[in-house]
Amino acid sequence: MSMGFSTMAALTSSASTPETENSDVERSRSRSNKSEPLIPGLPDEVAELCLVYLPYPYQALVRSVSASWRRAISDPAFLHCKKSLSLPLPYLFVFAFNKSTARIQWQALDPRSGRWFVLPPMPGHYSKLASPPGLACASLPRQGMLVVLGGSDAESSMRSTIVYRTSTNQWSSMAPMPTARSYFDAGTINNKIVAVGGSGTRENDSIRAIECYNPENDTWATLATMPVGLAKYDSHVVGDKMYVTEGWTWPFMFSPRGLVYDSKTDAWRDMSPGMREGWTGVSVVVGNKLLVISEYGDCPMKVYDHDKDTWRYVGGDKFPCDSLRRPFAVSAVEGSIYVVACGLNVGIGRLSESEAEKGELQVEWQVLPAPSAFRGFSPSSCEVLYA
């Protein structure tokens, strides 16, 4: 903090090439901007702290205020300072669609204020799609990074990889997946994104290939192939393992299949019978605990016991079915579960250990009603990112 962000930016930019080398006017304007104070009347060191404390998504908007503000907020030292002060807070990012208007969009919710922000539209072919195109989403929460993979257009499955960063409030196209796929799942293991299964370019073409994306160097690698192709996916990562299940589907005539991927050995095995049979809804991980919100009856919540290979019901409040109607998209952070429901109403479940029974979990629910403008939207995916 002894050297201001603007001073550091000036040092680093002196070795770079201006975007418009041939323009004497631009070079002159750039030199003039460097001498401008960030906020008139304040030392730059104090003004920079003011910018650091701006909440998401306003930090991205300050880029349009002035060249000096844009330069300050774009400097790597700015983000480092924000992280070192533990300023990033969790926001809920929701991918939703409206059947009646054929509209898709991403929104971000500040759970502290209940305020929603609409994200820029996804680039390329995604902006032309009229419904959730079978894409998969994953995230690196602490890096403020959201990753959208694959999907399908009117003709075939796709290989696309696009990344949203909270620091810039922008989307970027990255290295495409080696395999085109849609209607699949993805998860995060050791800060890498793993794409699992799905459908290929031909109808009923089940994909067993597993691929891993490294966002640090924008590359893909191939992992151990799944032993079988599953028909429907729900998955979650607990520790170094990724659990993948078909889940129970109407009319409940066939027992679901399930697999477990161990990233340490790069190998697959069958899911244990108790886990497979009790996985009756959408899953979420809190700490190292795997939970499901059942998609039947009054939507009871269960937690999996690895030692006993059984599921136990979570005590406390009943799930607020009157306010939260299916379909659900679920995520979690810092001991809280976020359930996005039809109309984008959000239920926040706070887990704690029961005082009456040691080791037993209980939940307390709070509902954040969505704006009336979201009434026709249904959630397709949600992720928690720090911003």
UniProtKB/TrEMBL annotation:
Superkingdom of origin organism: Eukaryota
Kindly state which keywords UniProt assigns to this record, in alphabetical order. Answer: Kelch repeat, Repeat
Q: Which SUPFAM superfamilies match?
A: F-box domain (SSF81383), Kelch motif (SSF117281)
Keyword Transmembrane helix recorded: no
- Is Repeat among the key words of this record? yes
Q: Which Pfam families match?
A: F-box, Kelch_1
Q: Where is the composition biased (Low complexity)?
A: 1-17
The UniProt annotation puts the region (Disordered) at: 1-39
Domain spans labelled F-box? 42-82
CDD domains per the UniProt record, alphabetical: F-box_AtAFR-like
Q: Give the matching PANTHER family.
A: OS02G0202900 PROTEIN (PTHR46344), OS07G0153400 PROTEIN (PTHR46344:SF4)
Q: What is this protein called?
A: Putative F-box domain, kelch-type beta propeller
What organism does the UniProt record list as the source? Rosa chinensis
